[in-house]
Amino acid sequence: SQWSTGRPAVPWVYSGSCALCRCSDDDPAMFGEKVTLKEHKLSVHYFCLLTSCGVYQRGEEDEGIFGFLVEDIKQEARRSARLTCFGCKKKGACVGCNVRSCRKMVHFPCGRKQMFVSQFTGLFPSYCPDHSPSQSLCTGLDISLPRSCSICLDSIDPVLSYSILKCPSCHTSWFHRDCVQRQAHSAGLFFFRCTLCNNKENFQEEMLRMGIYIPERDASWELEANAYAELLEVYKRCDALTCLCNNGCTHSAKSGWFEVIRCRLCGSRGTHRKCSGLKLDTKDWACTDCTQATDGKVHSSISCKRYKLTCQYLIEDAGFVLNCHSLSLRPSLPERSGSPEELLQSLVPQLHPPSVQVEVIGDQALSAGLDLVRRADFDPTQTLSVRSVAKTKEYFLKLLMQQIQECVVFEGPDGSKNLALDSEALREDLYFDVGCLLALSLVHGGPPVGFFSRALYQCLFNYPANRPLNVTHMTPDTHFTHQVTRITEAESLEELKEVMAVSWEYLELAGCNRPISSLKEREALVEDLVSFTIITRMQLPLQRFREGLQTLGVFDQVQLFPSVFCGVFCEAGDHLTAQKIGQLFTINFSEQEVKLKRETPVVTFWRHFLLECEVGRSSISLQDLLRFATGSAKLLAVSAVSSSSISFLHPLTPSPLGFKEGRGSEPESKHLLLPVTSSYQAFKSSMEQAISHHGVYFD
After folding, report:
1. Rounded to a whole number, what is the largest CA-CA distance in the chain?
2. Tally of CB atoms within 10 A around 161
3. Structural domain range at position 529
4. DSSP bridge pairs for 127
5. pLDDT tens digits for 608-642?
6. Which pTM value belongs to this model?
7. Same domain (yes/no): 392, 533
């Protein structure tokens, strides 16, 4: 039908399609709300109204369609009936490029297909592909290009274009245009922000510039009536196998035997006190499912604070933010990076008295630490107090770090440890406990970790980001490493197939037992095998280890500044060896023949002692010995000055064992006195006693 006479006929008959774009699609996120006025036989998309060149909002909000008068809309339809669409070549184009010299006109849906950018702000201009705004890479930042959309998680080509946009703040969140438009439609003005960095102001400004419509309303999930009503419901049902209540399992008295008490962990199971044989004053109860999930430790041994920390990690890992004070144990983190010491120091204010006492028997530091974190009343925010004969907290933390490195959860050479898969350690939850002890040691001023491999650090903190692992990152001298190495070193296709046939069980376990038709396919096979060995099969140990490191917010702090902490967790600089330490010292023998005979075997004792320090058979590490003898724990700092010397302390000499002459004021005169003893055990005992009593004070 025609709206008036004497005007050009509009080739459009009302059939539910939009009067401006002639499209019947009803997708509010892509085209805006579709409004129909039956009395005027008129339907129109909201975005078509906003972007049309010849129609303006001349009425009030309640007049016409969102303030656009019906007559103005009909007039725009008649005007655009003479204009040809640049995309579909049909009449009715009402959206034009805002550049005056450009004559391209399109229907709004065709404009999306032709990569027109319509800005939903100001005068609502539109731009053709030749004149539309674009984004560019930030070359000044050292970031890796993403490979998936941060909203839908589907793969993307990391090339900025009309269909691929990025966040202007973090530059690491990339997404499809359609995905971010649907997110904006769902989140609204108050909740629309970057999914990774959570930036709102700059992000919204950039998205408006790039043609994303942000509705000025609350989020869609907030507008739904009674959307969170179920959260206000309290579980009140007895789930005991035999309910003894005469009023039924759904009855809950206000107090007494037949009051329903809920599981304190999950809250989704309940019981009458009488039905589960509980005491009349029992308020703390856990259901069977939670008891089994925690190996029966729920009732008496599980720490509420540890459970809250675990819940907090799982909630945050799922991408939610929980503003609940009872779970908010994470400290406020600094906005700017500094040294590792400064960043760890920011976590110290969490610590508060009273102190918790660590009982150390002999040199069993790891055993004492495990007893501490497994206590039912363990609170990581309490300060530490070490109770042991002639042991300080500093010495305890050093010994603890050394024994952690040698425990069953790690494998590999010194200074480059990977996580080991140990079923008994999983049953005992040792991965969590060791991670917790490492976090406690760092916050309480313990020594750097220093023994993580680069591969383990990357698996935990994704640094360097998205860098593929290779066979060199696998633990040396293991069965899996030997098999992957043989596959890597195969020189022909026939040899490769023979190696794969021998290793078929390993390939089957890794899901890589597939036919290989050329050597070019070997690279992908090796990459899959390395990923399986280091990451896939180690997922549970890695998860529990991360959760342990979450104690006192250490994991979050490291994840914020992974480059700063890399030297704390991984070995940095020269690796100390017994040979290198021995080469630092010049041995000065006595001129008297009697003393010389006694001093000669002591040199053998000294070299053997260095070897035991290197392999961990002594309570003293090479770093402790170097610091005690020279005042520095760094090999480079010691080698920069003149060589240190060694003399011998005979029993009649009135000097304390291990005395160092020239300490402090003259770094060139490092002089270590070795005790002259008749047996190695006496020598070792004297050295360990001297260094443990005095070494910690010369940091």
Report:
1. 131
2. 12
3. 353-573
4. 117
5. 888 888 767 787 878 778 877 776 655 544 443 44
6. 0.43
7. yes
